[in-house]
Design a protein that fits this description.
The protein is an alpha/beta fold. 27% of the residues lie in helices and 22% in strands.
């Protein structure tokens, strides 16, 4: 049995099958997610006999770090190789109901894949952007990942590993000098720009904004979030974890009913259906009227805002009239904010909006009572920024380093 990605309840059931007391599951859970220790032989508070049994009957499968791309701003883009894995599951759609013919749990072989994650250090925190699928089926026209198509869903363990591995690696390498990751420090009094090693901060943010549509892999995503948001697991705060969706309406409705859930961000990127149909084909299935209705009905917690992301595409969706239409769209909603994201150059036929166009767009939204902020992406020089995550070759072909 694969241990990484298993919940406390699943580990308790497994320990019961082994004839072990329930508290052994708590110990295993802590080693995996609290201590980030993946070698069973180092789980020192377990009896030697149990460690031996676990080594024979279980695995802890970590992604292979195929490449690291280090940006000038200190961001690190990871290319993780994922091996074959057999997983027991019951297939469900975004509404949470079982697909026809899936009443019994089935075991399927998850084919090999590769995904990308990005570690972004900054003052007082680090942010990790993780993938939820290998490739993506949503086909947003301005996103490089769309060129891959959907290769496969990731398991809960494969998602959790994208958070645990960079944190463990950065912590261990800080004093060893094995991995040199540096970021710019403020200029010294002499005016010369100094550099210093990246250090782990106390706070970790996680954003589900890498490859894939999280709400089309709902069960595994919620399994991963259950571990990431568990105080006895990875221990992240819901305030510091954000799930971004292209607008899968049934998934949004279902997420709003979850007791443990992250913040929600909607990838809007257009001001009308005609425009959004062209940029995001998923809009033909879930048009803006249905999406806005789902957002109106989404139960926000008392500290929470609903975030809308808007990628600024030069002469496509950045006109003042677009801004006014966005105001009309979002006006009926309560506690919203808009992140304006300058488009990050890639191998696609778009261009960046001008700084003046972005500022005018922001001004119109803000003056009409819609808080708007310009969010510049990290890691652009190593193709790790928003919309740039895509393997440079199709699965099965050689990989080449970018940047």
């Amino acid at each position: 049995m694969e241990l990484l990605g298993k919940s406390r309840e699943e580990l308790m059931a497994f320990c019961g099958m082994l004839g072990e007391p329930a508290y052994r599951a708590d110990q295993i859970y802590n080693w995996l997610y609290g201590e980030k220790e993946f070698a069973v032989e180092r789980w020192s508070n377990l009896p030697a006999a149990l460690r031996g049994k676990l080594k024979r009957e279980t695995t802890v499968t970590l992604p292979q770090v195929r490449q690291r791309y280090v940006s000038l701003d200190g961001s690190v883009r990871y290319l993780f190789g994922l091996g074959e894995r057999r997983e027991d599951f019951t297939t469900k759609n975004a509404e949470g109901t079982e697909h026809e013919g899936s009443k019994k749990e089935r075991s399927v072989l998850k084919k090999p894949a590769a995904v990308e994650a990005v570690f972004m250090p900054s003052e007082g925190r680090q942010t990790i952007c993780i993938s939820t699928q290998a490739g993506c089926a949503v086909n947003c026209q301005f996103c490089l990942t769309a060129q891959l198509g959907l290769i496969r869903n990731l398991t809960a363990g494969e998602m959790v590993a994208q958070v645990l591995m960079p944190l463990k690696e950065m912590k261990e390498s800080a004093g060893s000098g094995q991995i040199e990751i540096r970021e710019k420090a403020p200029a010294s009094e002499s005016g010369r720009c100094m550099e210093e090693p990246t250090r782990l901060a106390a706070r970790t943010n996680v954003v589900l904004m890498g490859q894939g549509e999280p709400l089309l892999n709902f069960e595994s995503v919620m399994g991963a979030l259950g571990i990431l948001l568990d105080p006895e697991g990875v221990g992240l705060s819901p305030k510091h974890v954000t799930l971004s969706t292209s607008g899968i309406v049934p998934g949004i409705e279902r997420l709003g009913n979850e007791e443990v859930r992250p913040k929600l961000a909607i990838s809007l990127n257009a001001s009308c259906d005609e425009q959004r149909d062209a940029l995001m084909p998923i809009n033909k299935k879930y048009p803006l009227k249905a999406l806005m209705e789902a957002c109106r009905n989404y139960a926000l917690r008392n500290w929470e805002h609903l975030t809308f992301e808007y990628v600024m595409l030069g002469r496509v969706n950045d006109a003042p009239e677009d801004a006014r239409r966005v105001v009309r769209l979002l006006g009926p909603l309560t506690r919203v904010k808009v992140n304006l994201i300058p488009w990050n150059p890639g191998e696609l036929p778009y261009k960046e909006s001008s700084a003046d166009a972005i500022e005018e767009f922001r001004r119109i939204l803000t003056e009409k009572g819609v808080p708007a902020f310009v969010r510049y992406s990290r890691g652009r020089d190593v193709m790790a920024a928003c919309g740039q995550l895509a393997l440079k070759e199709v699965q099965g072909a050689p990989l080449r380093i970018v940047g």
